[in-house]
Amino acid sequence: MAEPVLKLSNLTKTFGALKATDDVSLDLKPGEIHALIGPNGAGKSTLIHQIAGSLRPDTGSIRFLGHDVGALGVPERARMGLGRTFQISSLTPEFSALRNVMLAVQARQGTSFRFFRPVMRDRTLTEPAMAMLERVGLAGRAAVPAAELSHGERRQLEIAIALALGSKAFLLDEPMAGMDPEGSKTLTGFLDQLRAEAPILLVEHDMDAVFALADRITVLVYGRVIATGTVEDIRNDADVRRAYLGEEA
Ligand SMILES: Nc1ncnc2c1ncn2[C@@H]1O[C@H](COP(=O)(O)OP(=O)(O)OP(=O)(O)O)[C@@H](O)[C@H]1O
């Protein structure tokens, strides 16, 4: 069986008397979409913050690509390829889609000063940036300023930037938020393909998207994992139906 890319073991985080995450263990395997669902206040965002490094767990461990990253800060984890996507807007609205990705390529290459070449003609930047846009299906929109892209296209562009920065896993916190039904459908199709690039930990309230995409689902309630399994397992789990899907079991 494939080694997990990300492995969380027994993460607990308390705020005063509240256990926001309570002994949470889960993993993310290569090529999968693992959805994390639960009612408001269940601790999903708190967990994402702990993975990204912006919150320290009280106890427990986080292993990424075989390394314990618990002592590392946000930038170090991001440099290893573990970054949050979508929350911190990484786009410069007035720049074209291509130029936005070029900035990420440049940041990765660590070459911020190029005195002798006009930046848009620098093929060491344009070619890899264009390749990223092709991978996310935005090559035809390369020249369009980020501000003029649709909401869904901006999500795609943010993914292209994350790929250019070397993401080895995606932490997606509610990517469907603010999307109309058509946009959600398009983004669902895109995320479906994206799992081949890097596995995705997906926090999402849109259950249609979750059921369409997830290889596995973990359900958090009051900070605790009450179930992990396939879509079928979760749909049929009596505790989940009672606690989250709002049904009488
Ligand atoms: N910095 C903080 N200080 C105190 N309490 C906090 C803090 N951050 C989160 N909480 C509390 O921890 C609990 C879990 O919150 P969290 O935002 O992680 O839930 P969530 O599952 O992401 O909810 P939602 O689906 O509404 O985004 C909530 O009761 C919240 O009020």
UniProtKB/TrEMBL annotation:
Q: Which residues cross the membrane?
A: none
Cited InterPro entries: AAA+_ATPase (IPR003593), ABC_AA/LPS_Transport (IPR051120), ABC_transporter-like_ATP-bd (IPR003439), BCA_ABC_TP_C (IPR032823), P-loop_NTPase (IPR027417)
Where does the ABC transporter domain start and stop, copy by copy?
A: 6-247
Q: Which UniProt keywords apply?
A: ATP-binding, Nucleotide-binding, Transport
Task: Indicate yes or no for the key word ATP-binding.
Answer: yes
The terms describing its cellular component in GO are:
plasma membrane
Mind telling me which CDD domains this protein's record contains? ABC_Mj1267_LivG_branched
What Gene Ontology molecular function terms does this protein carry?
ATP binding; ATP hydrolysis activity
Any Pfam family matching the protein: ABC_tran
Entry's PANTHER family? Answer: ABC TRANSPORTER ATP-BINDING PROTEIN, CONSERVED COMPONENT OF ABC TRANSPORTER FOR NATURAL AMINO ACIDS-RELATED
Protein name in the entry: ABC transporter ATP-binding protein
